[in-house]
Structure formats: C-alpha cells, structure tokens
Write a structure and sequence with these properties.
By secondary structure, the chain is mainly β. A four-stranded antiparallel beta sheet has the order 1-8-3-6, with no helix packed on it. Strands 2-7-4-5 form a four-stranded antiparallel beta sheet, with no helix packed on it. A hairpin with a 5-residue loop joins strand 4 and strand 5. The two termini are 12 Å apart.
Amino acid sequence: MSSASSKRTGVTAAITGTSATEVIAAQAAGIRTYITSITVTNSHATVSTLVEIRDVTTTVMFRGYALAAGGGFAITFPAPLTGTAATAVNAYNITTGSNTYVCISGFKAP
C-alpha cells in the first residue's frame, strides 16, 4: 500500500503535436512509477487521435483512442502498470492537430 507521500499525479496542458509530453517526471534511481488510472479527453472539434502512454520513448504502456469533440477514455487498472525505474511517464498523440489533455495518477515505489 502506498503512503500519501508516494502518490504521483500529472496533468498536461493541451497536446496538439506528436512529440513527447511529460506527464509524471522521472523518479530517483531505483524508484518506479506505478500507474493506477489514466484519463484522456480531446477537445478538438474534428481531429481524433490515438494516444499512447509511454515510460520511455519506445515502450508503450497503454494506448487508447480519443475521438474529436469531447471524446477520450478513462481507465482504472485493477493492478497498476509498472514503469521503468528512474524514467518519466510521457503522453504522445499519434495524429497532429488534436487537442488532448492527459491526467495520470499512481504512486512511486522501488
């Protein structure tokens, strides 16, 4: 069980491009981020996108689709997704031009 001091939450500003957007910063050496929930919304009127959550530039931890005009997804994991130690958790849009917001919650632990 995690203590209050180990809780981690990150929220992005609008993501419109396809570059990495940091949601939760890298933890100290030997410490991992465990993701317990992800919420994604897309406020663009016409552009939908696939959104990937990655713990390094190439390792996809989760992906979901965010339809235009308020689409998105919310998921709570029964067992947390385990990130790589000392690595940030990033969000990526696969389509340029959407307007997505990402919120990730979890905790840090060895």
